[in-house]
Specification:
Elements lengths: L12 E7 L2 E9 L9 E5 L10 H7 L4 E5 L21 H14 L5 E6 L1 H12 L4 E7 L4 H6 L3 H6 L2 H4 L6 H7 L2 H9 L12 H11 L2 H14 L2 H11 L8 E6 L3 H5 L2 H6 L6 E6 L5 H4 L1 H12 L4
Parallel strand pairs: 3-4, 3-5, 5-6, 6-7, 7-8
Antiparallel strand pairs: 1-2, 2-4
């Protein structure tokens, strides 16, 4: 299916959902809704992106799955509420609950989940808090948040400096990024081994610029990271102390030019927090694997979620 040339998200439709007082945007497509035997796959994006990052992968997965592709709370066309003092409304627990509510509204009780970057962290918490919902789980170019913070050294802090910049008290990072938000956005999208912006489709880049380069989008992204460095770590430590692990089979994909490949051991790091089997592989990419290697990424996801590996 290489070289797909279609209209933007051809065959998909978009919809706004109200979930516990929050408005969530999602694209829906793939196998028909009346195909009750089709596997359901929830695709979650990362920072500083929107659901648009999945376009080329989604077109390749559409013949095999019923696809739900939302914008996370704080991103895209989903609501971007002001952060609370403890950042709890941007915790991965709350963001995961958003998506469980979204899937319930669509009539999906059990489904597959794949997340890239921040979306993978939301997916991880979903698998812990709602194991009865997650059939299979794939995480892309991350290891667990607590693991990454506990192993912070000069190499990691230098490569992922934004983890420590975005968590500073408001409005310092918001004001700094807001001075030239488009430049900042492009620098993030072209970094972490991605080697420029050639991998980003023009309509996706416009979506990222429209949704991130404003005060609400920048603040929401900062709140996502502030939560990750505070309340999320509380939740993660509680889960580990209780011996709570991911029950679903897990696949991890990571880029061989990325920070995760250089500084961590993805298979071992995920196996440490999983009860079930962990499989995966490094791909010839930087951090943005679904956009840098859409065909290979779609193939790996299809094989895993269809139970072929």
């Amino acid at each position: 299916m290489s070289g797909l040339h279609t209209a933007w998200f051809e065959g998909f439709h978009s919809q706004q959902f109200e979930v516990d007082g929050q408005r969530l945007f999602a694209r829906l497509g793939g196998r028909p809704a009346d195909d009750t035997g089709a596997p359901v796959l929830l695709l979650l994006h990362g920072f500083p992106q929107t659901h648009a990052m999945w376009h080329r992968v989604a077109l390749r997965l559409a013949p095999h799955f019923r696809l739900v592709i939302p914008d996370l709370r704080g991103y895209g066309d989903s609501d971007k509420p002001p952060g609370l003092p403890d950042h709890a409304n941007y915790s991965k627990r709350v963001m995961a609950a958003d998506l469980v509510g979204l899937m319930a509204a669509l009539g999906h009780r059990r489904y597959n989940v794949c997340g890239h970057d921040r979306g993978a962290r939301v997916a991880h918490r979903m698998a812990l808090d709602h194991p009865e919902r997650v059939d299979r789980l794939c995480v892309i170019d991350v290891v667990p948040t607590l693991t990454m913070y506990e192993r912070t050294d000069m190499a990691f802090a230098s490569a992922y400096y934004h983890w420590f910049h975005l968590i500073q008290s408001a409005p310092l990072p918001e004001r700094m990024i807001g001075g030239n938000a488009t430049y900042y956005l492009h620098a993030k999208l072209g970094g972490w081994g991605a080697d420029g912006l050639d991998h980003v489709e023009p309509p996706a880049l416009l979506d990222y610029e429209r949704c991130f380069c404003n005060a609400a989008g920048i603040h929401a992204a900062c709140e996502d990271y502030r939560a990750a460095a505070s309340i999320d770590l509380v939740h993660d430590r509680m889960s580990r102390s209780a011996g709570q692990k991911v029950q679903a089979p897990l696949q991890v994909l990571w880029g061989e030019r990325g920070v995760v490949h250089r500084l961590f051991d993805p298979i071992a790091d995920w196996q440490a927090v999983c009860e079930g089997p962990v499989t995966g592989l490094a791909m010839p990419a930087g951090h943005f694997i679904p956009e840098e290697q859409p065909e290979a990424c779609a193939l790996a996801l299809s094989r895993f979620f269809l139970g072929e590996c």
